[in-house]
Amino acid sequence: xxxxxxxxxxxxxxxxxxxxxxxxxxxxxxxxxxxxxxxxxxxxxxxxxxxxxxxxxxxxxxxxxxxxxxxxxxxxxxxxxxxxxxxxxxxxxxxxxxxxxxxxxxxxxxxxxxxxxxxxx
Length: 121
Hints:
InterPro entries: PhaG_MnhG_YufB (IPR005133). The chain crosses the membrane at residues 12-36, 48-71, 77-95. This is Monovalent cation/H(+) antiporter subunit G. By secondary structure, this protein is mainly alpha-helical. The protein is 78% helix and 0% strand. The chain has one domain. It has helices at 9-35, 39-42, 44-69, 76-105, 114-120.
């Protein structure tokens, strides 16, 4: 059953704007993934877009269900915490794996390892 007709017009407008902004930011992050050339450039755009876009969409969900049920609905905050924590951690793991692979294969110019540089001096 759809409860959207029960949502006041002011809340519907704010929820719609938050959803539109969140989906637009996520879409921009996706275009960054397609447009950028190297792996190291590609990992940043979707990570930032996904985190901010998901945050705005979750804010819209919190507002919508809080107004509909006339009580605070905050279980979406758990989803936001999981997305906020896992997305950057995944980015760091992927980037470290790619740096390790590129250093061992010697295929791409990557910065020298700081630990190796200190040992050589």
